[in-house]
Amino acid sequence: MKRKIWKEKPIVLLSILLIVSLASCDSLTGMTVEATPIPVIPPVISDLKVVSEGVVLPVNSAELSFAENGIIEEVSVKQGEQVQAGQVIAKLEGLEKMLADILSAQTEVITKQQDLDDIYENYEIDLAQIELEKLEAERNLESAINGKVDKQQGRGDWNDLVRAQANYGMAQAKIDEVQRKYHWFTDNPASDPDRAEVVVALTSAIQERNQALGEINYFMQGPDPLEVGKSDADIGYFTAELEKKEADWLDLLAGPDSDKVALAEAELASAQMKLESLQKDVEDIELTAPFDGMIVVSDLKQGEMVQSGTVLVNLADLSQWRIETTDLTELDIVGINTGGKVRVSFDALPDLELPGIVREIKQIGVNQQGDITYTVKIDLLEQSDQLKWNLTATVIFE
């Protein structure tokens, strides 16, 4: 374990020894020697440096295992080969059936989503339809009310009465004229054609007068109770119809049927959960690379039975390296801070020194051969292709 070092120490003792030696020589020879002033040199004391051992590790590395038990069906990448993030390294048996189940589940999700969409689309159509029906019911009720108003005013308007009176007058004048002609033929026998013609004309004139008189009497009377009653029945029918349409319209304004929506949403959610579960199962039987890197160690063998959680592959990005210390004690760690600068050298590479920076200090120490040690993680500010996994490094904390 490497300890703290000091670069230089005070050099006061040498000056004292020199003065004592000169004094001794003077006393031995009996000679008088004039002392030459010696300049006072202050001690040079360097800052304390903490030195630690560490190891070289990849910035990104991972131990990979299957999440399910099974038999390895295919190994796509061998040890020493490069992979990209998301690339399948190996897979267990059963993938084809899972993919078929996923396709079926995807179809079910699409169907359930369409069912839910149809509820909202049909709602818009139903709302537009009920608005049209409500408008028609409003028009029918308005027409029935106006019809009753007309019927309550009488059986005809003033013009109808005037027309009937005019017809009565013309019919009466025709009767008077025919009666005068009839007197000319009263003495003729009944079989006389001229007399018969006059009788026919007189009968027709009397019928016209009676019809005109009937119209006058009709128009002179009040409203027809039957017609008014029919109008009341129409008003009641169209009022009830309008109330129903308005109630249906108000119900639709609140949105689609909540029970139908809830059921459709529940069925869609169930289909989606089933699909996600199947997709997770596929992920569990496929071993994929979480990042770009190299297969450093691989224990994958086609046809072998594997247990979930058993580490089969070590993956690492060997282009980016970091340092982890292994021997910083509780006395050393108090002077080290995150963000502090370091210099890193390597036992196997004496000509290589790289700058770095403290990225993380683990807060919990561990007992290592009686010493409490803390791990410090260091980011290298420069990289070198000479570095290897687990090379020994020397870290000087500045």
Short description:
By secondary structure, this protein is of the alpha+beta class.
Contiguous low-pLDDT stretches (5 residues minimum) are 1-36, 38-46
Class from secondary-structure proportions: alpha+beta
Radius of gyration, CA atoms, in whole angstroms: 58 Å
Mean pLDDT: 84
Number of domains: 3
Q: Helix proportion of residues, in percent?
A: 40-55%
* Extended strand count: 17
Largest sheet: 6 strands, antiparallel, barrel
Per DSSP, what share of the residues sits in E-state strands of 2 or more residues?
Answer: 15-25%
Anisotropy-based shape: rod-shaped
Distance between the termini: 19 Å
Helix tally equals 7
Structural descriptors:
398 residues; alpha+beta; 3 domains; six-stranded antiparallel beta barrel; 7 helices; disordered N terminus
Give an overview in words.
The chain is α+β, with helices and mostly antiparallel strands and 398 residues long. The chain contains seven helices and 17 strands. The chain is 48% helix and 21% strand. The strands form four sheets. Strands 1-10-16-13-12-17 form a six-stranded antiparallel β-barrel. Strands 2-9-7-4 form a four-stranded antiparallel β-sheet, with no helix packed on it. The protein has three domains: 13-46, no CATH class; 51-65 and 314-397, Beta Barrel (Elongation Factor Tu (Ef-tu), domain 3), CATH 2.40.30; 106-253, no CATH class.
